[in-house]
Design brief:
- The two termini are 31 Å apart.
- The chain has a seven-stranded mixed beta sheet with strand order 3-2-1-4-5-7-6, with helices on both faces.
- It is globular.
- The longest helix has 19 residues.
- With 324 residues, the protein is an alpha/beta fold.
- α3 links the parallel β1 and β2.
- The structure holds S-adenosylmethionine.
Length: 324
């Protein structure tokens, strides 16, 4: 991906981040899935996105507290929009935080019906029948100005790892800024540190596999961007993008995903990440690394990654925000 790295949590800089810790290749060709611009069939990614949400739950709670905490003076029922909500983990965290502060309105928007349903269910389960927060779902294409009619203006507009899937990331940022009420906030989760999960020497293949795999991922991200129809480069960082969108008080903070223990969830996530990378490796990967990945992903082998005690998840997500 670009010249940068990405991680589950993301990379940075121009093209940005990525948590595309997307397993499988996620590419849908000719399926009847709803339309996004990235060639990815997101409806096949629900389990993966749910797994990521589960591992990021602490980070999502921190983000919700911090961002909902900014919405003072916006009236009793702030409006929050989550665009490109995926499986809904962050939507659920926003809903819980809104309820804790007396209530509000949450609008979950995505380009994929199956994800809207998943996010709605996740959020409803988190609210457990608390009706102080109203939840709506809207099918949108964030690359089209029609989103400005489909979604109400909000006190907080949130988009995590979504804008880098749009053909024109600056135009996407400009559009999201228009969805913000005067005085409200746009927050983009883009960039950060790519997720790391492997010890340096695995005893399988050549040490340093983690860094080489992150390079694979980066390359994949670059290909994904290049293959988007009408793809426009954004050769600067997200703080600049927010400023160009007319927002003020631009700042950023980062939250860690820190799972130091090889729990069953961590093992499943790491195996899924490696499997996804194996499916989208280019010719640039050495035979030695290919063989190592096959050995690590063979559930019947002693070298199986899912049976190791020494894998973990560590990454950082950066949230860039600005005020209208
Ligand atoms: C990498 S996932 C991120 C999901 C979630 N926000 C997270 O951080 O876990 C990208 C999300 O953006 C959505 N998406 C992609 N292109 C979109 C578009 N043009 N309009 C709206 N949503 C889009 C996908 O359906 C998916 O839910």
């Amino acid at each position: 991906m670009g010249a940068h790295t990405h991680g589950h949590s993301h990379a940075h800089g121009s093209t940005a981040h990525q948590s595309e810790h997307t397993p499988g290749n996620g590419h849908g060709h000719g399926h009847s899935h709803d339309h996004t611009h990235d060639g990815i069939d997101w409806s096949t990614q629900i389990d993966h996105l749910r797994r990521e949400d589960a591992l990021a739950a602490d980070a999502q709670t921190q983000i919700a507290r911090r961002l909902i905490g900014l919405l003072t003076g916006t009236g009793e029922r702030p409006v929050v929009v989550d665009i490109g909500a995926g499986a809904g983990g962050q939507s659920a965290a926003f809903a819980v935080e809104l309820a804790a502060r007396g209530g509000g309105r949450l609008i979950i928007a995505d380009a994929v019906t199956e994800l809207l349903e998943a996010a709605r269910a996740t959020t409803a389960a988190a609210l457990g029948g608390d009706d102080r927060v109203s939840v709506e779902t809207v099918l949108v294409d964030a690359a089209s100005d029609s989103v400005l009619d489909a979604v109400a203006q909000a006190d907080l507009v949130w988009a995590s790892r979504m804008v880098h899937h749009l053909p024109d990331q600056q135009a996407g940022t400009d559009r999201l800024a228009k969805l913000v009420r005067p005085g409200g906030w746009l927050a983009l989760a883009e960039g950060g540190l790519p997720l790391r999960c492997l010890p340096w020497d695995l005893g399988v293949g050549t040490p340093g596999l983690q860094d080489r795999l992150l390079a694979v991922r980066d390359e994949f991200f670059g290909r994904m961007r290049a293959e988007i129809t009408g793809s426009v480069p954004m050769p600067y960082g997200w703080n600049i993008a927010l400023g160009r969108a007319g927002l003020a008080e631009v700042s950023a903070f980062s939250v860690l995903t820190d799972q130091p223990t090889a729990t069953p969830e961590v093992r499943e996530s790491v195996a899924s990440w490696l499997d996804g990378l194996r499916n989208r490796m280019s010719d640039n990967v050495s035979d030695d690394d290919r063989t190592a990945l096959d050995q690590l992903l063979d559930p019947t082998a002693d070298s199986y990654i899912g049976a190791r005690e020494d894998i973990f998840l560590l990454g950082a997500t950066t949230i860039h925000l600005g005020r209208r």
